[in-house]
Amino acid sequence: MKKIALLSGTAAILAALSVPAFAQTEIATGANAAGVSDVEDRISDIEDDVQDNFDRSSDSDRFGPADRRQGLSGSMSLAYTGRTGNIENQDFTLAGRVSYNTGPIAQTLGMSLEYGEDDDGNTDTEETNVIYDAQYYFNDRFYAFALGRFTVDGLVDGFDNSDESVRDTDEDLDLRLDGYLGFGPGYRVINTDTTAWRVQGGLGVRYTQTGEQYRTDDSDTDVGYILSSRFYHKVNDNVFLTNDTDYLTSDVNDVITNEFGVNVRMSDRISTRVSYLTEYQSDRAIRTDNTLGVAVVYGF
Fold first, then answer.
1. For a 10 Å CB count at each end of the chain, is N or C smaller?
2. Which residue positions does the secretion signal occupy (predicted)?
3. What does the pLDDT read at residue 251?
């Protein structure tokens, strides 16, 4: 069996493994029992999501590696929760990343381990993820990149998930191994204090093996090509524009995404980001999806 799957784009592989900050268990005496802490946590999640939108739009790599921290750095976090009483379960997570930057080379390795049990005490999560990102700068404009991702689902046991009598779960979970490796050249067309534009293109190879394939010693290896563009322009100290474009082609279909964003600092207290995302896939009945996003941060 041979099938072509969509390869992850350059931006997708850089999806970060978040490391939670240490915080108090409640914001005020009695907040946990009264449910106030749960709402407070949700407020923090919303604020983090909005801030992430602004951080991604600023594109920390737009001017190259000059501002990157040199040497070895990283972080690691671990969390465990065990519950008894009306429900019996436990959850364990371990996540971290290590970066090593020296001279023209910048590398980042990230990993996450997740283990969980359902309310009956049966294991429902057992997953390992590893990502790798590297750039080598030949000069201030020309560079090479490499991207890697590897995922292992320890729960896939070789059953055909489409047969509900055998296993009652979403068939998308019928995946045991999923690996990706991409590499290619990049070039900074414009690199000034106010405008930055870089383009890059490369070859990507994806390896997948489902639980059913594991039983028959089968697997899929899929190849695709991607072209990407990242544009940034500072209008003034309070306004900057971004436009991110990706084009991916493979035997299964063509995918094009374009996101245009306007970021405005209206005052020292108010910042706004408006974005418009267009996604095209050639094999869909309705080929184009459009998404309008608005994010506002107000501090006082």
1. C
2. 1-23
3. 74
CA pair distance 192, 10, nearest whole angstrom: 23
Is 257 in contact with 245 (CB distance < 8 Å)? yes
pLDDT value of residue 278? 96
Sheet holding 220-236, edge to edge: 71-83, 89-102, 105-117, 123-137, 142-153, 177-191, 195-209, 220-236, 239-250, 254-265, 270-281, 288-298
DSSP string, 83-131: E-SS--EEEEEEEEEEEEEETTEEEEEEEEEEEEE-TTS-EEEEEEEEE
CB 156 within 8 A of CB 171: no
| pLDDT score, position 96 | 94
Instruction: Classify 39 as helix, strand or coil.
Output: helix
pLDDT band at 98 (very low <50, low <70, confident <90, very high): very high
pLDDT, tens digit, 9 for 90 and up, residues 33-48? 777 777 877 787 777 7
Sign of CA dihedral 64, 70, 72, 74: negative
Percentage of the residues of the chain whose pLDDT score is greater than 70: 77
pLDDT at 163 over 70: no
Q: Is 214's pLDDT higher than 80?
A: no
Closest CA to 43 of 14, 23, 59: 23
∠ Cα 107 109 114 (to 5°): 165
Instruction: Please say whether the beta carbons of 223 and 176 come within 8 A.
Output: no
Q: For residues 209 and 193, give the distance between their C-alpha atoms in angstroms, rounded to a whole number.
A: 46
Q: Which helix (H) or strand (E) holds 229?
A: strand 220-236
